[in-house]
Design a protein that fits this description.
Elements (H helix, E strand, L loop, with lengths): L1 E8 L8 E3 L6 E9 L4 H16 L3 E10 L5 E6 L3 H16 L3 E2 L12 E3 L11 E3 L2 E6 L8 E9 L3
Antiparallel strand pairs: 1-3, 1-9, 2-10, 3-6, 4-5, 4-8, 5-7, 9-10
Helix pairs in contact: 1-2
C-alpha cells in the first residue's frame, strides 16, 4: 500500500519538492489515504485532476483558532465552510473509494470534514485572512519507503 495525501498548499510549492515530515509548508489537508502500489497512485491522480482544476482559484476565508489532536495539542486555524472546498474533498474521497483505497481518517470526511491550517511554530494564517486555492498537490508520505520525508508527486497550479 502507498500512503498518500491530497493537500492545498497555502505557501508556494513545486512538483518534485521534498521536505521533512516535521517541516510541512502551511496547507489544508483534503484527504489522507492509502492505495495499492500497482498503478493506484497514477489512477488516483487521473481521477483527482478535474476536481482539483475546478477548485483552483477558490477564495477561502480563515475563521477562528482551535486545537486538534491529543489533548488539544495541535493549534490550528479553521477554514470557514466553502462549497468549492467541500466539493473537492468529497470528490477526492469518492476517487479513493473508486480505487478500493482506504481513507486514513474516515471519521473526518464528508459532512464531518473540518478544514483547517495547522500552525507551524510562528507560521500560521490568521482569522479573517483570505486564502486562494492556487497549489493543490498529491504528496507521497513515504517516498522510496522513507517515512521521514514527503515528496510532491503531482501539483495542480493556478496559472496567473
Amino acid at each position: 500500500m502507498r500512503n498518500l495525501i491530497m493537500v492545498a498548499f497555502i505557501e508556494p510549492a513545486s512538483e518534485g519538492q521534498e521536505f521533512l515530515r516535521t517541516d510541512w509548508p502551511l496547507h489544508i489537508t483534503l484527504v489522507r489515504f492509502n492505495v495499492t502500489d500497482d498503478g493506484g497512485t497514477a489512477r488516483f491522480a487521473s481521477l483527482a485532476e478535474v476536481p482539483a482544476k475546478q477548485a483552483l482559484g477558490s477564495v477561502l476565508s480563515i475563521g477562528g483558532d482551535h486545537h486538534f489532536g491529543h489533548q488539544g495539542s495541535v493549534p490550528v486555524s479553521l477554514v470557514k465552510d466553502d462549497p468549492a472546498l467541500q466539493a473537492l474533498h468529497e470528490s477526492l474521497v469518492q476517487a479513493v473509494e473508486q480505487l478500493s483505497g482506504r481513507v486514513a481518517s474516515p471519521h473526518h470526511t464528508r459532512r464531518l470534514f473540518r478544514p483547517h491550517v495547522s500552525h507551524h511554530g510562528e507560521q500560521r494564517v490568521n482569522p479573517g485572512d483570505a486564502v486562494v486555492l492556487d497549489h493543490i498537490a498529491l504528496v507521497d508520505m513515504a517516498p522510496d519507503g522513507d517515512r521521514t520525508i514527503r515528496r510532491i508527486l503531482k501539483l495542480w497550479e493556478l496559472r496567473k
